[in-house]
Design brief:
transcription regulation, 4Fe-4S, about 40% helix
Length: about 90
């Protein structure tokens, strides 16, 4: 049996990377809870982010979600209870 070249990379099945999302509390929710519309600022932004955080509070995959957002340097939205500003401080 031929051996793979030394530069070959073992790929992990995509399902293994994303399967946790099936258990997310936000699954099926309107994404506008987690992503700000253009020009949203101040009180409206804080209130939307708080609504998103409340969804994340009891989520069984909150840690995986937050970790994924930090590792991939997700720029937008609330992930695992972390807002864009929260993630930029880490």
């Amino acid at each position: 049996m031929p051996r793979p070249p030394s530069y070959a990379v073992r790929l992990q099945p995509v399902g293994d990377l994303w399967d946790w999302q099936r258990f997310a509390a936000c699954r099926g929710m309107d994404s506008s809870v987690f992503y700000s519309p253009t020009g949203e600022r101040g009180r409206l932004r804080r209130e939307r982010e708080e609504r998103a955080r409340r969804v994340c509070e009891g989520c069984p995959v909150r840690e995986q979600c937050a970790r994924m957002a930090l590792e991939t340097r997700e720029h937008y939205g609330v992930w695992g209870g972390l807002s864009e500003a929260d993630r930029s401080r880490r």
